[in-house]
Write a structure and sequence with these properties.
globular; about 45% helix; 7 strands; Rossmann fold; alpha/beta
Length: about 250
């Protein structure tokens, strides 16, 4: 992609799944990439897997003070920030009536508050420098109803509206978009779905398969690049056509 070489990139939740695939893609594009993740073992593993990483930072995005400390560490590593892949998130598969207040709060803290805390710190630096790009991780769950994920759905709907607001307020200096994947085969997906459930999902997706983390990484790379300079405030769905047909494809 044009314009990614030498760019300074932070990827939250970047040690596994879509985040790790995105880190690999941006390193391949010649960018300087730092991964932020709460999982120390996963951070060590990705450092071994991608030796050209500019560094890893251990932090919980739901902790505002920890995010501030993490960005101070990032300042030392990269001396600025051009691109934020705001990817960190969690989900818990449970019925609406069984969600505990603690579970609800934890999902909101990571998926919505965490996106906000990180984006605010990133935007502060981008506005003071030469601008930048913020790409938030949404989900098709934020666009339509899914059973057993009420808290996750609500958090991702919040991320979508937060993105639109950010895009308006930060323009023209910072571009902000949200990526909404459907079923992507990640460790988080495999932990919540049995092989039989995944096969059933595949049968209802028009392209008849689950997405790959590398395909989402490719979309991140395009939207962060100079090829997408006139794109901001938009929702990008990558789901193999899953939500196109409404109930027919469900």
């Amino acid at each position: 992609m044009r314009g990614l070489k030498e760019k300074r990139v932070l990827i939250t939740g970047g040690a596994r799944g879509i985040g790790a695939a995105t880190a690999s893609r941006f390193v391949d594009e010649g960018a300087h990439v730092v991964v932020l993740d709460v999982d120390e073992e996963a951070c060590q593993r990705i450092e071994d897997e991608i030796p050209l990483l500019s560094g890893t930072i251990r932090a919980d995005v739901s902790d505002h003070k920890a995010v501030i400390r993490a960005f101070r560490e990032l300042d030392e590593l990269l001396k600025g920030l051009d691109i934020l892949i705001n990817n960190a998130g969690i989900s818990i598969r449970h019925s609406f009536m069984k969600i505990t207040p603690e579970e609800w709060q934890r999902v909101m803290d990571v998926n919505l508050n965490g996106i906000f805390f990180v984006a605010q710190q990133a935007a502060q630096r981008m506005l003071a420098d030469n601008g930048g790009v913020i790409l938030n991780m949404g989900s098709t769950n934020g666009l339509m109803g899914y059973p057993f994920y009420a808290d996750y759905n609500a958090s991702k709907a919040g991320v979508i509206e937060l993105t639109r607001s950010m895009a308006l307020e930060l323009a023209p200096t910072v571009r902000v978009n949200v990526i909404c994947p459907g079923y992507i085969l990640t460790p988080m997906q495999e932990a919540e779905y049995t092989p039989e459930m995944l096969r059933e999902c595949e049968s209802k997706i028009p392209l008849r398969r689950l997405g790959k983390p590398e395909e989402v990484a490719a979309l991140f790379a395009f939207l962060a690049s100079n090829e997408a300079q006139y794109i901001t405030g938009q929702i990008f769905v990558i789901d193999g056509g899953e939500i196109t047909g409404g109930l027919a494809s469900r």
